[in-house]
Amino acid sequence: MTFSWDLPYPSQRSPLLARNVVATSQPLGAQAGLRMLLKGGNAVDAAVATAITLTVVEPTMNGIGSDAFALVWAEGKLHGLNASGRAPAAWSPARFAGRDSVPTEGWDAVTVPGAVSGWVALSQRFGRLPFADLFEPAIEYAERGYLVSPVVAKQWSDATERLSAQPTFRQAFMPGGRAPKPGELFRFPDQGKTLGRIAQTKGEAFYRGDLAAKIAAASASQGGAMTAADLAAHRADWVEPIDVSYRDHTLHEIPPNGQGIAALMALGMLREWELTNHPVDSVDSVHLQIEAMKLAFADVYRQVADPDAMKVKPRDLLNADYLRQRAHRIDRKRASDFGPGTLASSDTVYLTAADAQPDLGGPGGWPGVGRHVQRDR
User: Does the annotation count 342 as an active-site position?
Assistant: First the structure.
C-alpha cells in the first residue's frame, strides 16, 4: 500500500516515520514504552509498560482496576486477548431491581479487574524483557511524582464532584482537598507499592494474594459483592479476532463482550452505499456513517453481553445479507430512531507500539504491531 501525503485535514502534526513507535494520549506513558525499546524490548514490552504507566500519569482514563483488550501481530498471524473481568458471582437481577440502569459509581459498577491479567498474559507470551522491568517507569513516577499535564488536570477536576464521595477517593486523588492543578507535582507512593507487588508476583498478589484480600475486604466493608473467590476465578482469554473487509482494507476487532463489533457492522452496512460519491465530511457522507453506527449500536445494546450468555454469535451480526438488510433501513433524507434487527438463527484509552524486530514482524517485512486498549471503571 502506497502512503499518500495528500492529507485531508489541515494540521500541525506530521506523520512519524520510524522503525520503532509508541503512541498514546500522555507523553510520559509513551516515553515509558520507548524506554523498554531502548532496553532491548519489543513492541509488546513497550505496549505493556505504557499501559502500566498510564495508570499513574493519566489516572482519569486508566486504572489498575480496569480492563484490557489487545490485538497483536506475531508469528505470522493476528492474536486477540480479552482481559476483561466477569461480574461478581453474587450479582443477580434482584440486586439491581428498581434501577433504570447499571450504576456508574460504587461497588455495583465494578466487575473483576482484568487489566493486570492482560499485562501478565501479553508479557509471558510475547515479551522479551523481565516482567518486573515493565513497571520501572510507573513505579518511579508514583514514588517520585510527575507534573500533571493540563488535559489530565482538567479531567481530574471535572471528576472530583462525581467521585469525591467514594470511600478513600479524596485521600488518594485529592491531596490538599482538591484535584492537582496543571504543572503541580503529584505523588502516589501507595500506588507504587501496589504496582511493585504486582511486578514481584507476576500478578498473583492481585488475584490470589495480599492485594486480593485487601480488595475483597474493602468490598465487604463498603457493601460490595466482589469476593476473594471472584478474583481468584478470573482469567484472561486468548480469542480469535473478528473482521470485516471494506473496499481494499480489512478491519479487525476483538469479539464480544467488547463493542468493537459495532464498527465492523457499520462498515458492512456502508458497503451498500458508495461513500466516494460524496465529498469527505459532507452532510450526506456524515449522515450515512452516523445512521450506520446507530443501526449497529441498536443491535449491540440488545445482543452483546458476556460471550457465555449471548444468544447470537458474532458471525450472525456480521452476516453480509443481514447487514445489507439493515443498511437499506437508512433514509438518505432524515435521521431515524432504530431498534434492533431480527436475526436469522443463532448468534473501550488507546495505545499502540510497533517495532522492526523479526519475531514480531508482519507480512512483507512490515513492523509488528501491539495494540492495547485499556478502559477505566
Answer: no
- Cα–Cα nearest to 111, from 262, 219, 256, 261: 219
Mean pLDDT of the 361-367 span:
43
Gyration radius of the chain over CA positions: 22
pTM of the model: 0.88
pLDDT tens-digit series, residues 132-187: 999 999 999 999 999 999 999 999 999 999 999 999 999 999 999 999 999 999 99
Dist CA 110 CA 60 (whole Å): 16
Q: Reply yes or no on domain 259-327 having CATH 1.10.246.130.
A: yes
Catalytic residue among 24, 55, 111, 348: 348
Spell out the domain ranges in the chain. 21-90+104-145+187-238, 259-327
